[in-house]
Design a protein that fits this description.
The structure holds two protein chains of two kinds. Chain A has ten helices and one strand; from the N terminus they run H-E-H-H-H-H-H-H-H-H-H. Chain A is mainly alpha-helical. Chain A has one domain: Ribonucleotide Reductase, subunit A (Orthogonal Bundle). The longest helix of chain A is centred in the middle third of the chain and has 29 residues. Chain A is globular. By secondary structure, chain B is mainly alpha-helical. Chain B has a domain of 299 residues: Ribonucleotide Reductase, subunit A (Orthogonal Bundle). A two-stranded antiparallel sheet of chain B has the order 1-2. In chain B, strands 3-4 form a two-stranded antiparallel ribbon. In chain B, strands 6-7 form a two-stranded antiparallel ribbon. In chain B, strand 3 and strand 4 form a beta hairpin. In chain B, helix 8 runs parallel beside helix 11, helix 11 crosses helix 14 and helix 11 packs across helix 17. The radius of gyration of chain B is 24 Å and the shape is globular. The mean pLDDT of chain B is 95. The chains are: A mainly alpha, B mainly alpha. The interface between A and B is large, with 106 and 121 residues. Chain A: Keywords: Monooxygenase, Oxidoreductase. Chain A: Pfam families: Phenol_Hydrox. Chain A: Its EC number is 1.14.13.227. Chain A: GO terms for molecular function: oxidoreductase activity, acting on paired donors, with incorporation or reduction of molecular oxygen, NAD(P)H as one donor, and incorporation of one atom of oxygen.
């Protein structure tokens, strides 16, 4: 039996009952239990608003001493001049997805579980062995190429933008979009790894050469690289989420892969690509909401519309060229249940509908 | 995922990057560092497929504890002395967290290493997590703690308060100026690697001793992400060290970042731990003892010193001087006294000190009573309204201090104050290093070399300037630090919530508040010299 007479006396803090609970006393402000420095969009503040609004301060709101560090060539903080788009109140924007810590991890973990289960089941069922060779090559080349675009947009578009916008609400929404893209790109890469190890004739590293050199993918790569070179965060967000994702991203994911995979005996790829589509639907909702606010801005709406028209005139031709260059891949699978023209028309229709939501003129290039 | 699978997965993910040939990413944030010769360093591996479930699990534990705290009536045993300081701390910290997220593309722009880009982007998401989870913790305090005043106006108060501005450096410093100075050296190499130990580990431990186990729950969860961030920072540091041209800049930035972090973080966290606790066990570690363990041994000796083998000059002198300021020059005690002097313009209440506190301070910091005891006795004596003014306006042998133009903590170690005319303005600094930071480091040229990307010190840096020659009651009202009866102040120099013992606007009216810097610049040369000599010689007159 252990000797307990020679043990060191432990030192620990003493608990004291202080009766410091809410409601223990009535005194001035004893019932002031809401954040009172901003006006919530509805009568009652949401969790999202409480943990997001005003965390990034603004000299136009409560920041009295101004930004205390500047750049070598200009002011610090979050200058509104970092985009040509203008707003009479940038703080009006609230993320319709209400993303904060809990939603980010719950939603993405749910996707991780969905994808993981799907891949485990596919392995157990030997699902890839039933794929025809043409489909294996299609996935190897084209899904392989596409994952580069997703990763590039994650790191050099959305991650980049979230340093620049003038409010925490915009920047957090874009940071979440970056996380979506990064997770989706990695899911595609790890799917590629599974296929490489699946005892089928799948060339895992082939995607690099396709992305870097295949003629049908070069206009897409060029457009992605040109997007990353845009300095104006507003233009970058608009060109990526409003134009590129509609005319190239959705065209490839929704109007091609999701439509034809099942007919080619593949029930795995749509499950994974569908998560990317779901991410985009959420991220687009945030972008649509932001750009709607800007075109409806009483003071700057007209100027913003004109500006967005200019951005459309730059990016619609580039993205259409990228889309059209992809046409040959519609012919690669053994089963071709949909034509390129049908897919492109569907993508254009969705794009037109989005532009109508944004009250913007439809570019003439869409009718050509 | 097995280690082998993880390695294969990471190798596959690294195939996602490519060398652009049509256009390169815009460089929005410049750096004077160069990485042309840098070897590619691989930071800690992280895959989103494992990252999201890991964080979700951590969250579930945090939120479970929060529910448990409410159900278990944690606030029956929380010390108000402690939680009042959280009104200040939790108003500040979500901004540095979100600023760390914003800093990541600056590092990505500056460092040509795709392996690191991935880790930095994951860090960005971590920081969104930290910022919002901390805002949520604060919301819980606001809802459950006896006195919500101050929590309820938190982000506004952070943005218009003198202490909030001090804390704001620990955030703006991450996102402004030279991309490597800001997003790597200041943020990761110094702030995250050194000072999160006291912020997120030492301080939450003290919270637990004061009945609050939610602060450790949330902040230890936050801290568990920091090892990846430290790995990101170290990788970039090693890449920078590969080019001799970066050495002077690294040495400059280590000096600036170390000293500014010391000035800001030790001021705040030292005060919270030493003056916010009710745990006065003699064998409880003091802040100085914690600092010795977490900063001096764990960071300086284990992390900074080994960098010497790369030929880097480490700021030994500044590490030793920070230690000297904490142990011999009373830095933390001076800051606590300054915060307490300014109580009417605080949005938290500061408790009086008791004999038990005095004994503990004397035990831990011999000589404390002779230097600070009398002042705290006066603080106790002047705690209630009616017969006296706020202590700042009573003669208790304490001269309201000049503010350091650089770190914005006042020049409280008065004999060390530097006064110089910089950019056509007389400015005061707490130390030679803070003077050097403004006059030499944050400039477009450094030691004969062009440094166009280095940041600048801007803004209304002396808070008092904004309120010069105004009545104290009007200042408090303008700041919004008034409770919902329209007259009682949020800040109080005691913890008694009896409305009859709480100060109102009428109680503080009639006291004019003057900016030391405005007055300094109005003085003739002779007046200024005499004033500065007296300040340096004896800022604290014996009453």
């Amino acid at each position: 039996m252990a000797d307990i007479t020679d043990q060191k006396t432990r030192s620990f803090p003493k608990i004291e009952f202080t009766d410091s609970e809410a409601g223990a006393l009535d005194f001035p402000s004893s019932k002031s239990r809401t954040y009172n420095y901003y006006k919530p969009a509805k009568l009652r503040a949401t969790m999202y608003e409480d943990v997001t609004v005003d965390v990034q301060p603004d000299p136009d709101r409560h920041l009295t001493q101004g930004w205390i560090y500047g750049f070598g060539d200009g002011p610090g903080g979050y200058p509104k001049e970092w985009t040509k788009a203008q707003s009479s109140n940038w703080h009006t924007f609230l993320d319709p997805n209400e993303e904060w810590e809990q939603t980010i991890y719950r939603n993405n973990s749910a996707v991780v579980r969905q994808v993981s289960l799907c891949l485990e089941n596919a392995k157990r069922a030997g699902a890839y062995k039933n794929w025809n060779h043409a489909w294996v090559v299609f996935i190897q080349r084209n899904l392989g190429a596409w994952m580069h675009a997703e990763n590039g947009i994650a790191l050099h578009v959305f991650t980049s933008i979230q340093r620049s916008a003038p409010t925490n609400m915009i920047n957090n929404a874009v940071a979440v979009a970056a996380a979506h893209k990064m997770r989706f790109a990695q899911d595609l890469a790890l799917f590629n790894l599974d296929l490489s190890e699946a005892d089928i004739d799948f060339d895992g590293p082939a995607h690099r050469d396709v992305w870097q050199n295949a003629p049908e993918w070069q206009p897409t790569r060029q457009t992605v690289e040109e997007l990353t070179a845009v300095g104006d965060w507003g233009e970058l967000l608009f060109a990526t989420n409003i134009v590129f994702e509609q005319l190239v991203g959705q065209l490839f994911r929704s109007e091609l892969v999701m439509q034809i995979a099942a007919r080619n005996g593949d029930y795995i790829t749509p499950t994974i690509v569908g998560t990317g589509e779901n991410d985009y639907a959420r991220d687009l909702a945030a972008s649509r909401s932001l750009f709607q606010l800007l075109v409806r801005d009483e003071e700057h709406g007209a100027a913003n519309k004109e500006l967005f028209g200019q951005w459309l005139s730059v990016w619609v031709p580039k993205c259409l060229a990228a889309a059209k260059a992809l046409q040959p891949i519609w012919s690669q699978p053994a089963e071709k249940p949909i034509t390129f023209a049908t897919s492109l028309d569907a993508a254009k229709d969705k794009f037109r509908s989005l532009l109508e939501d944004l009250e913007l003129d439809i570019p003439k290039e869409l009718d050509q | 995922m097995s280690r082998q699978s993880l390695t294969k997965a990471h190798a596959k993910i690294s195939e996602l990057t490519w060398e652009p040939t049509f256009a390169t990413p815009a460089t929005r944030f410049g750096t004077d560092y160069t990485f042309e010769k840098a070897p590619k360093k691989d930071p800690l591996k992280q895959i989103m497929r494992s990252y999201f479930p890991m964080e979700e699990e951590k969250d579930n534990r945090v939120f479970g504890a929060m529910d448990g705290a409410v159900r278990g009536n944690m606030f029956r045993q929380v010390q108000q002395r402690w939680l009042e300081w959280q009104k200040l701390f939790l108003s500040i910290i979500p901004f540095p967290e979100i600023s760390a997220a914003r800093a990541m593309p600056m590092a990505i722009d500056a460092v040509p290493n795709p392996e690191i880009h991935n880790g930095l982007a994951v860090q960005m998401i971590d920081e969104v997590r930290h910022s919002t989870i901390q805002m949520n913790l604060k919301k819980l305090y606001m809802n459950q703690y006896i006195d919500p005043a101050g929590f309820d106006m938190t982000e506004k108060a952070f943005a218009n308060n003198y202490a909030g501005t001090i804390g704001r450096q620990f955030g703006e410093g991450f996102i402004t100026g030279d991309a490597i100075t800001a997003a790597n050296v200041y943020l990761t190499v110094v702030a995250e690697t050194a000072f999160t130990n006291t912020l997120f580990v030492a301080m939450p431990d003290e919270a637990a001793a004061n009945g609050d186990y939610l602060l450790p729950t949330v902040f230890h969860s936050v801290q568990s992400d920091e090892s990846r961030h430290i790995s990101n920072g170290y990788s970039i540091l090693l890449m920078a060290l590969a080019d001799e041209r970066n050495r002077p800049l690294l040495e400059r930035d280590l000096r600036y970042a170390w000293w500014n972090n010391h000035c800001v973080v030790d001021a705040a966290i030292g005060t919270f731990i030493e003056y916010g606790t009710k745990d006065r066990r003699k064998d409880r570690e003091s802040y100085a003892e914690m600092w010795r363990r977490w900063i001096y041994d764990d960071y300086y000796r284990s992390y900074l010193l080994p960098l010497e083998k790369y030929g880097l000059t480490i700021p030994h002198d500044l590490v030793e001087e920070a230690w000297n300021r904490i142990t011999n020059k009373g830095y933390v005690h001076e800051v606590a006294r300054f915060f307490a002097t300014g109580w009417p313009v605080n949005y938290w209440r500061i408790d009086t000190m008791t004999d038990t506190d005095f004994e503990w301070f004397e035990e831990k910091y011999p000589g404390w009573y002779s230097k600070y005891g009398k002042w705290w006795e006066n603080y106790n004596r002047l705690a209630y309204p009616g017969r006296n003014k706020p202590i700042a306006f009573e003669d208790v042998g304490y001269q309201y201090p000049h503010r350091c133009w650089t770190c914005m903590v006042p020049a409280l170690i008065r004999e060390d104050m530097v006064v110089e005319k910089v950019d056509d303005q007389w400015r005061t600094y707490c130390s030679e290093t803070c003077y050097w930071t403004d006059a030499k480091a944050f400039r477009s040229e450094y030691e004969g070399r062009e440094t166009p990307n280095m940041g600048r010190l801007t803004g209304f840096r002396e808070w008092e300037t904004l309120h010069h020659d105004k009545d104290l009651a009007d200042i408090v009202k303008d700041l919004g630090y008034v409770r919902d009866d329209g007259k009682t102040l949020i800040g109080q120099p005691h913890l008694d919530l009896d409305p009859k013992k709480m100060w109102t606007l009428d109680d503080v009216r009639g006291n004019r508040f003057m900016s030391p810097n405005v007055l300094l610049n109005q003085m003739s040369d002779a007046e200024r010299e005499a004033h500065v000599a007296e300040y340096r010689a004896n800022g604290t007159k014996v009453a």
